[in-house]
Design a protein that fits this description.
The chain is an all-alpha fold. It contains six helices and no strands.
Length: about 150
């Protein structure tokens, strides 16, 4: 559950920050403020000020992409805290992300992908492209075979 919250917070932050200083910003801002208003009305004014401050920094920056990168951790932390306190808002934040991403100009659209391999697993992932695997070693490492059979791998 914790990983899901972190992933959604990162996706939400990336999407909201990507909308700053674009034609999608007004709708993204209003939707974000509305989300906070529903779950933490006392924080609405503070969120508006923070959103406007971040967007203003992006808009006035000589390098807007670099400024977006600087704003991203702040919004990721805020959204993660928000989701931990209001887990019932996860579906609504996910829908907000989908709406904003549809409004973003092509170059500003962003996607998040998390791939985790455990226990000698292998992950092959691709996003918006092709992957060609010509060889995959499917046998376990020599140390793993040796542990199970009583043999040593020396």
């Amino acid at each position: 559950m914790e990983q899901e919250v972190a992933t959604l917070a990162m996706t939400g932050a990336t999407t909201i920050v990507a909308a700053m200083a674009t034609g999608a910003w007004e709708n993204a801002r209003n939707a974000t403020v509305a989300l906070y208003r529903r779950y933490v009305p006392a924080q609405q004014a503070a969120v508006e000020v923070q959103l406007d401050g971040s967007a203003g920094r992006v808009e006035s920056a000589q390098d807007p992409e670099r400024e977006r990168e600087r704003q991203l951790p702040r919004w990721q932390d805020d959204l993660e805290d928000f989701l931990q306190r209001n887990p019932e808002a996860a579906a609504e934040l996910h829908a907000l992300v989908d709406r904003i991403q549809q409004d973003l100009p092509g170059a500003q659209q962003s996607w998040a992908q998390t791939n985790i391999a455990r226990d000698h697993g292998i992950v092959n992932a691709v996003q918006h492209g092709s992957q060609h695997n010509y060889y995959m070693d499917s046998s376990p490492p020599a140390t793993a075979r040796a542990e199970g059979s009583g043999e040593t791998s020396e």
